[in-house]
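Hello,

Our lab assistant flagged a job as stuck in the queue for most of the afternoon. It eventually completed. Since we weren't sure the result was trustworthy after the delay, we are filing this so someone can double-check. Below is the sequence as submitted and the structure that was eventually returned. Let us know if re-running is recommended.
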Amino acid sequence: MSISFSELIFYAFGISVLFLTPGPVWIAIISRTITGGLNGAVPLAAGVAIGDIIWPTLAIAGSAALAASYADLLLYLKYFAVIIFLVLGINLISNQNSKISLQNLKLSKSSELAGFTAGLLVIIGNPKAALFYLGILPGFFNLGSLTITACVVISLVSSLIPFLGNLVLAVMVEKSREILSSASAMRKLNILSGCLLIFVGLFIFMEAI
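-- returned structure --
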């Protein structure tokens, strides 16, 4: 395989930190758990996981094609990845709107297929995800030399970590209702996540110079 275990672990850490950033998937998972329990959240998480395989795969293919044409592109993309992580981290730390409202989140119960489709569409309907992966992946791997096996492993890691995280979120959502609705608690989570994102960005920068 064309990637090292340490590279993969560091990438997994980066994806784990990114998962801690509240977003549309968090809202959807919380909503499905409230209305249908864990059985309602699992199909949604599975749909999200499929989408999380598709976008990294497309991003890797696109980056590899560009790298084959422009020799210095990977280095520039690596610095771009640094910028993305720094901006995300600073934005989280400075964000004052750190409360997730659980009001009006309850959705009507629907079939497992509907939940799966909803999860898939949350990701597929966001083409910015491809650009996001296009930006961060070169910060972790030399995309110009990836084997098919390495691409599969990276895509699986990109999917598996958020999937497990979504399941944990679903399991804990009832106990976390007060935390998720507390501005101060979410503020602390945002600061921690922001600092970790900045750390990842700085680490990538040190590796690039």
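-- support follow-up --
The delay was a queue issue, not a problem with the job. The result is valid. The two ends are 25 Å apart (CA to CA). DSSP finds eight helices and no strands in the chain.
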